[in-house]
Amino acid sequence: MNARPWLLLLSVFAIATCGLVYELIAGTLASYLLGDSVTQFSTIIGVYLFAMGVGSYLSRFVTGNLVSTFIRVEFLIALIGGCSASILFLIFGWTVSFRIPLYSLVFLIGCFVGLEIPLLLRILEGRFAFKDLVSNVFSFDYIGALLASLLFPLVLVPRLGLVKSAFLFGLINASVGLLALLMLKAEIPRLRTLWATGLGVMAILIAGMINGNAITKLGEYAAFPDPVIYADATPYQRIVLTKKKDELRLYLNSNLQFSSKDEYRYHEALVHPGLSRLPQAKRVLILGGGDGLAAREVLRYPRVSSLTLVDLDPAMTQLFSTNPMLRQQNADSLESPRLKVENADAFAWLNQTHEPFDFIILDFPDPSNFSLGKLYTTTFYQRLLKVLKPEGAMVVQTTSPYVARQSFWCVDATLRACGLQTEPYHALVPSFGEWGFILASQTPLSGPAVLPEGLKFITEEGLTQLPQFPPDMTRVDTEVNRLNNQALVRYFEEEWAR
Questions:
Q1: CA-to-CA separations, 412 to 131, 406, 437, in angstroms, rounded
Q2: How far apart are CA 43 and CA 64, in angstroms?
Q3: Is the pTM of this model over 0.85?
Q4: What is the dihedral of CA 244, 249, 254, 256, to 10 degrees?
Q5: CATH fold of 262-497, please?
Q6: More confident site: 183 or 414
Q7: Domain 3-222 in this protein, CATH class
Q8: Triad 170, 172, 175: Cα angle to 5°
Q9: % of the chain with per-residue pLDDT over 70
Q10: In whole angstroms, what is the distance from residue 213 CA to residue 202 CA?
Q11: Is 311 a catalytic residue?
């Protein structure tokens, strides 16, 4: 048997890899732009697989030249899939309902991907024994899917980003079409038209690949209200920094993390109501807070001799320890000799450390997905208690008690379920509105507050007002957030979706 059928069979490997990459790009981009939630990936995967089923069904109605149709389908997938990330990025800032074009594009790509394998099976029919054909096609299909699932988080997102990755795999799809055109030209009418189409698609995708960074920047300029001065996709998140006049804003996966105009309100409220009442506190732990802003507030206390900061993403701590504007914002806290940075998953890190701490600050992103939600569970808080001194305390940033009332009190209920005594409080941060925090300890904190100098928001008088909740933010009954129910993620999604 000549090598041509085997080359076509091997193209299944490339087809499967491309198809899964387009699906992963759509899911990741949706989570970046709509919120980092398991809902985005779940719905994208569902729509994509349904569309593949529709495409497979429609393949039965293809009765003309199968090879020509297969090649046209490859060029269409290459063009639409290759340009998908660019299209979605560019229209996000201009469309009223982003989900309509998002799911329409996913459905279209899925339909064409669903056509590929049935058409290729029919083309190869008679060139292989049926049992060998089916087993080989599906073996290559699954192996290609495995390769895509490994390449995407480890290589494509951190090295190329979503836009260039889409163009790259569009080029692979187009190359499969051109290879089939070259090998089976004797079976194809209108060769010149197909060659011109294929080369034209290749030219568009190559131009897109070359200009991928410019397209990404253009899309981000449309998606964010202020000019983007820094953007990076790490294996963990999309980091975007914007600047307008003297205001810096940090976004993680399109969610605002702070504005330089009022971040001091948030970080002073996070740190000082607890630490100011612990005169014996010398060892402090910050989980999250890779921007160094909470660390800046902790380092105002001369009695703190050791500060450990555990943040998952080394790109965050690197950015905030090297960028001059950001170093000015955090007062060079990440370079302090009293501070030690650990880039690790806090959930796993707690199992490996046995150091006792007087005060623990939990400055995690909001629980918008199960990966983050586990950091607000009874399991996680029980691990924290193993490294928290009996007379110590911890504080948790706890979303908005006004917008997400159930979410806020769910965290409180979870801490109390671990045997902790809680002191919920809130503060107004203009960029976010009313924001909540919960101070928790094994024994009541009875010492008077001794605040450091130089604070711009927290005062001794103001401390007495923070725990006062108006009727629309007072306690409501909720479930306890456990690993096996993740009730908090459900509350959070429902409340913020409104």
A1: 60, 10, 9
A2: 34
A3: no
A4: -130
A5: Rossmann fold (3.40.50)
A6: 414
A7: mainly alpha
A8: 110
A9: 97
A10: 18
A11: no
